[in-house]
Every structure is written in structure tokens, then in C-alpha cells.
Amino acid sequence: MRHYAAMIMSLLAMGCSGDDTVSNKAGVQPMLGAVMHSKPDEVRRLAKQGVGLNERDPANQSTPMIAAAETMQWGMVETLIDHGADIWAHDQFGITAAQRTQTSRVIPGSDEDQARLRVIAKLKARGYPFPPPKSDEVLEMVKEGRWPPSDARS
């Protein structure tokens, strides 16, 4: 019986809640949790299954892609884009992942910077305007029914 307790404690330590639900008791959704805990393999696994690509953080309506961009995890952003995350998503403040490509402080030429540049190319290929509109402009366009733009592609 003791080995079951040890196994359960080990699984809990690795982040397995034991719940087969969209979010665990702490309210952390799986994809957001993987991004917040910098687990790129878990992000890839969930993305391949189509799980949580556009989850919303109840605190600010951020998505996994926005959260990854805000923490300069550009490889994760690229994974999310490649698996169908909404590139037009914005949080309650009008912040988008595309805006973060312009303010990122990753080391130029680093692997993360190379991923950031690929993200920009992928966004542009889908019709995302660059430079991206500022947060207040996004919110204004949302209010006017112009976001995403009419020629937007996913």
C-alpha cells in the first residue's frame, strides 16, 4: 500500500492532478499550466491532441499563445500556431502575441530569437498586420467589429 502512496505523490509532483477534467482543482487548465511551467514537451503533446490551444486565463482572458509570448517562449508560440491556436486572440487589455514579437528581449541570434522570427513570418503569412496594432487599437477594432480583420486567415 505504501508504494501506491509514493507513486501518487510522485505523479502529483510531476503535475498530474489525477482529475480527468479540463482544469484541475486549482483552476489551472492543462495548456496554460504547461506554458506557465515552461514545459515545451507537454505543450507539444497537448497541441498534437488539440487540447487547450485557445484556453482562457480567467484572470485576464490571456491564451496559452499570449502567455508564451509574454514569457518569450517563442518555440512554444510556434508550436501553438502550427497546431491551430487563434493568432487573432487578445486578452482583456487588447494584448496579442504578435505585439510581444516587437518587444521581446531575447538575445539576438539565439534559438529563441530564431523561433520569434519564424513566428513573425508565420503571422505575416496568415495576413497579420505588421507592425501589429497596439492594444488600444485592437480593443477599438473589436468594439467596431473589425477584429480580426475581414481578410484574416487562421
Strand content: under 5%
Average of per-residue pLDDT values:
87
Question: CATH superfamily membership, which one?
Answer: Ankyrin repeat-containing domain
CATH topology: Serine Threonine Protein Phosphatase 5, Tetratricopeptide repeat
Which value, in Å, is the CA radius of gyration? 17 Å
Give the class-level CATH name: Mainly Alpha
Shape from CA axes? globular
CATH architecture assignment: Alpha Horseshoe
User: What class do helices, strands and sheet pairing give?
Assistant: mainly alpha
User: Which parts are unreliable, with pLDDT below 50 for 5 consecutive residues or more?
Assistant: 1-23
Q: Terminal Cα separation, in Å? A: 51 Å
Give the beta-strand count. Answer: 0
Number of helices: 8
Helix content: 40-55%
Q: Note the run of SSEs as H and E.
A: HHHHHHHH
How would you concisely characterize the structure shown here?
This protein is mostly helical and 154 residues long. It contains eight helices and no strands. The N and C termini lie far apart (51 Å).
Q: Keywords, please?
A:
154 residues, mainly alpha, Serine Threonine Protein Phosphatase 5, Tetratricopeptide repeat, 8 helices, 49% helix, globular
Q: Any overview of this molecule?
A:
By secondary structure, the protein is mainly α. It has a single domain (30-152), classed as Alpha Horseshoe (Serine Threonine Protein Phosphatase 5, Tetratricopeptide repeat). 49% of the residues lie in helices and 0% in strands. The chain contains eight helices and no strands. It is globular, with a radius of gyration of 17 Å. 31% of the residues are buried. Mean pLDDT is 87; it is low at 1-23.
